[in-house]
Amino acid sequence: MKKIKIKETAVSLLIAAVWFAIGWVANGRLQKSDTALFEQVQMGLTEHDVNEMPSSREMTYGAIRGMVAEINDPHAAFLEPEMAARFQQDFNGLTGVTGFLPELVNGEWIVTVVLPGDPADLAGLMVGDVIISVDGVSFTPTLSALEASLLLRGPANKPAEVIVRRGDETLTLTPVRKPRPLVSEGNMLTDEIAYVAQYTFTANTPNLLRSELVDLLAQNPKAIIWDIRSNGGGSMDAAQEILSFFIEDGLLFLVEMKGGEQRPFNATGDTVTTDIPVVVLVSERTYSSAEAAAISMYENKRGILIGSSTYGKGTVQETVTLLDDSMLQYTVAHWLSPSGIWVEKEGFTPDNVVVDDPNTETDELLDAAVDYIETKLIEE
Prior knowledge:
6-stranded mixed beta sheet; alpha+beta; Pdz3 Domain; 3 domains
């Protein structure tokens, strides 16, 4: 027993001496900076830990994820190059969608929304299912919300393998991702009411929406329904450009940067229609810049809102491509309505609250919008 203790003591002293030497070298070279501390740990683990070491790049990625987790920003995320490529494809509108949304609850990814008639619904996915994996990638608690959403998307018309737990059962479902339109084809619901839906705010959507609006206006509608119920938001610049189609001048929304500096986003003057009444459809799936657009239409007295409370995301993110084509996303600002409303975690409730019933084939919100227009706008 005494020999064993002597050996243990000797080994401990040796390890301490090695770490002291590493610290001496690192501190001397990098002057006790945080970078030196990181390098000291990396060097010690790589050279002396008996376990198989990940690559230097993998250790760097781990450190980056640690920093992202430490800043208490729910929208911050680090994307490795492969996931970053997915992000770029998705931003450009080149991916298909499955039609369901999960949320991280007590360490598990729980399905909270399944859109009626969409691929996930047709494949049998249900609210309350626990996502185990998608296309072989495990849905762990360390997965960011951004990564989770990107994994749900992929090539249009190709199946996603979704493994879920439902009670005591483990099920494999294969929803076929459907193409994701940026803007729907506009149509006349009646001789007097035009309709167009928009699903995102990207660099491409203003031109697409403008084209649909111009075609609809040629048919002389007396009112327009602008449906942004399932709009995941996107670019605030795109929101400014699109709002300017309807609002001739004035403040559209504010963006408040770090330190309190406020940047106003005003109407650009590039109008399409400023006199025809607009009804805006919103729901809990109206998100971020889509919320900014809806509230701006309301506060500028340019649109009537019908639907349920919006999601409640009042922040603006920036996504930066890093040296190895990985990406870093983080929050750079809050956005505020013209009157100063911040919707974060609260959402915005329209004056005309109508809740869609997923158990019926009827589109209650659309019917309510048509009824409102026919009884309160056109007759007036």
